[in-house]
Amino acid sequence: MYIAMNRFKVLPGAEEEFEQMWLNRDSKLKSVPGFVEFHMLKGPEGEGHRLYSSHTVWESEEAFVAWTRSEAFRAAHGSAGGTRPLYAGHPNFEGFAVIQTISNEA
């Protein structure tokens, strides 16, 4: 299993627009081989920003890399720029190989 995360420092006053952009997008993820689940996380306020993080779970790092090279990825991210800056700088990417999972599933 592999987890891909992007952290965004969203500018003050842009939180609602940022959230709506994510909630209303056509993500294409459900049709991607190896995709498991996606979460958009809203974090704490920092100095001059609110922290958000996208959190995507994949069957493997190879499945994630294949997604980033796909036409579906380009289509899903084609309008990511928007009309005005919503966050400071570029998203901060972090990728993790899962070494342990504890689940509450039977």
UniProtKB/TrEMBL annotation:
Classification via InterPro entries: ABM_dom, Dimeric_a/b-barrel, Heme-degrading_MO
Highest taxon above the source species: Bacteria
ABM domain: residues covered: 2-96
GO molecular function: monooxygenase activity
Transit peptide keyword on record: no
Keyword Oxidoreductase part of the UniProt annotation: yes
One Pfam family in the UniProt entry: ABM
SUPFAM superfamilies: Dimeric alpha+beta barrel (SSF54909)
Keywords: Monooxygenase, Oxidoreductase
UniProt protein name: Antibiotic biosynthesis monooxygenase
Upper classification of the organism: Bacteria, Pseudomonadati, Pseudomonadota, Alphaproteobacteria, Hyphomicrobiales
